[in-house]
């Protein structure tokens, strides 16, 4: 049996979500989602149901492995090549430990270990690793590197971070918010900071989950124009609000979630002094939260610096940064399982 849910905004129908009743279990499931063999370079390429499916599988693995102590060797005999042009704590540890926990073999590769784009072309590297591994995650400077890998590889490619997008971070963020609030639709997320790859991924995802997005960036640090245009289309399609400003307090007004990120990314160290001046007034504090919703929480993808958010917020009960960091593991596991297997979740569908 199909259950068709019509969603509306201000009385106007905006989109339809199709769920399927499984008569053997009596549970509602997302209909016809199979991501096996796909790559994830940006969540722009994934539908609302596909993103929800990824979150559902992630929640399923977390429940069954962490809380129920089950052994799920779903990736036994599989291997993943983890290419890191840029260092990371959470991306490396979540992918490496998660893949191993599922029975597979992770291979960590820095620019000191392989010849990516130096003594060996990116095209050749993609073809070689396709014959040696089952999956590739690449954390790179340029998004074009990922596009070359995806074009030339015969295995799925995961964007572990690029200058344009950071999709695996956003999956963790939304699983964290789903766990905390019980559902996602109708929440308002406020981004206060730089127009970074993390913001771009929020903009490609939020509307598909029924989440409103308010963005404050200083002049000259706005998100990419093409990303803004796409986000505006998504907001119109899914009936959500997208609001851009240069005023942090205006962006925070009425919000459920305050989010920020580093103001000085790797490779921007020489811009530090100017950036600190330009971002004056953008630190997230309890004063910022005073205009937010009474149930407001805080997210940061880490590592964090005090100029971005003060200790009073960062270490408060409103801060979800450490559950958020842990969920990097469960969501990357959910993604890897989805791209490599036909695994179906066993827990009831999460409330979105």
UniProtKB/TrEMBL annotation:
Biological process terms from the Gene Ontology for this record are: citrulline biosynthetic process; L-arginine biosynthetic process via ornithine; urea cycle
Q: Where in the cell is it found?
A: Mitochondrion matrix
Task: Quote the pathway field.
Answer: Nitrogen metabolism; urea cycle; L-citrulline from L-ornithine and carbamoyl phosphate: step 1/1
Entry keyword Cytoplasm? no
Database matches in Pfam families: OTCace, OTCace_N
Which GO molecular function annotation, any one, does this entry have?
ornithine carbamoyltransferase activity
Q: What is its main location?
A: mitochondrion
Occurrences of domain Aspartate/ornithine carbamoyltransferase Asp/Orn-binding (ranges): 186-338
Quote the SUPFAM superfamilies the UniProt record gives. Answer: Aspartate/ornithine carbamoyltransferase
Provide the top EC class: transferase
Q: What is its EC number?
A: 2.1.3.3
Report one GO cellular component.
mitochondrial matrix
The UniProt similarity line reads: Belongs to the aspartate/ornithine carbamoyltransferase superfamily. OTCase family.
Q: How does it assemble?
A: Homotrimer.
Q: What is this protein called?
A: ornithine carbamoyltransferase
């Amino acid at each position: 049996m199909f259950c068709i849910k019509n969603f509306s905004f201000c009385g106007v129908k905006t989109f339809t979500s199709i769920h399927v009743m499984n008569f053997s279990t009596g549970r509602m499931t997302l209909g016809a989602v199979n991501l096996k063999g796909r790559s994830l370079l940006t969540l722009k390429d994934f539908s609302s149901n596909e993103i929800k499916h990824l979150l559902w599988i992630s929640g399923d693995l977390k429940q069954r492995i962490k809380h129920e102590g089950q052994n799920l060797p779903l990736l036994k005999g599989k291997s993943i090549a983890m290419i890191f042009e840029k260092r990371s704590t959470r991306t490396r540890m979540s992918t490496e430990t998660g893949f191993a926990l599922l029975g597979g073999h992770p291979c960590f590769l820095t620019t000191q270990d392989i010849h990516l784009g130096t003594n060996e072309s990116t095209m050749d590297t993609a073809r070689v690793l396709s014959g040696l591994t089952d999956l590739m995650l690449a954390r790179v400077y340029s998004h074009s590197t990922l596009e070359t890998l995806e074009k030339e590889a015969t295995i799925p490619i995961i964007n572990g971070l690029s200058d344009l997008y950071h999709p695996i971070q956003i999956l963790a963020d939304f699983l964290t918010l789903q766990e905390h609030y019980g559902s996602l639709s109708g929440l308002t997320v406020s981004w206060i900071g730089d127009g970074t790859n993390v913001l771009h991924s929020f903009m490609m995802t939020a509307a598909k989950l029924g989440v409103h997005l308010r963005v404050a960036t200083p002049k000259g640090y706005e998100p990419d124009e093409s990303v803004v245009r796409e986000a505006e289309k998504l907001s119109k399609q899914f009936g959500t609000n997208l609001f851009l400003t240069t005023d942090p307090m205006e962006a925070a007004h009425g919000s459920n979630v305050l989010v920020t990120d580093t103001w000085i990314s790797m490779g921007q160290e020489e811009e530090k002094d100017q950036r600190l001046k330009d971002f004056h007034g953008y630190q997230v504090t309890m004063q910022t939260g005073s205009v937010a919703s009474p149930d407001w929480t805080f997210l940061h993808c880490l590592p964090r610096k005090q100029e971005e958010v003060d200790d009073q917020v960062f270490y408060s009960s409103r801060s979800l940064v450490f559950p958020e960091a842990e969920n990097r593991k469960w969501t990357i596991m959910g993604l890897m399982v989805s791209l490599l297997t036909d695994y179906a979740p066993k827990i009831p569908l999460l409330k979105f």
